[in-house]
Amino acid sequence: MEAVPQEQRRKRNSVNMGFGTIAAVAGGAVGAVALAPVALGAVGFTSAGIAAGSYAASMMSAAAVANGGGVAAGSAVAVLQSAGAAGLSGAATAAVGGVGAAAGAGLKWLGGLIFKDKEDDEDDEDKKNFATDHFRCRNGNSPYPRLPELSSHFA
To answer: Are 121 and 113 in contact, with CB atoms under 8 Å apart?
Structure first.
């Protein structure tokens, strides 16, 4: 790999990080909004009603038992069935997009912690060498000489 000055690497990494973060946030938002109807249908909230034997049916049954035989308007089951039948409202689309964007940003951050590139390792090495390169006495020795071993004094 060619020798790239540290300041140039830092600038390049900040540009890449910005683009990567934007892409992760946008991808998370778009993906969540696109997949929300698919997920609703998969658990049983369909345009034709709640699918028999599905997870949505068990949710509806539990809600009906809890409410004395009916599903309360505005409950989670009612809202999800409405979204499954008619699609997401504007507010629901914004909420799902926001959650997806946050998830995308979180995954980008986590990926940055897990997958560290070689340039990051070089930056870490530069930080380690900073003290030894910059803090020396005029004679070239460290200002903090190594202390003598004390183990012989405590035997």
So the answer is: no
Q: Which of 94, 103, 48 is nearest to 40 (CA)?
A: 48
Q: Specify the amino acid at residue 119.
A: E
What would the pLDDT profile of 115-143 be if each residue is shown by its tens digit? 766 555 566 666 666 655 555 555 655 55
Residue 80 and residue 71 in contact, taking contact as beta carbons nearer than 8 Å: no
Residue 60 has a CB neighbour count (10 Å cut-off) of: 21
Taking CB atoms within 8 Å and a gap of at least 24, the contacts of 42-47 are 45/80, 45/81, 45/83, 45/84, 45/85, 46/84, 46/85, 47/84, 47/85, 47/86
Q: At 73, give phi and psi (nearest 5°).
A: -65, 140
Average of per-residue pLDDT across 21-34? 90
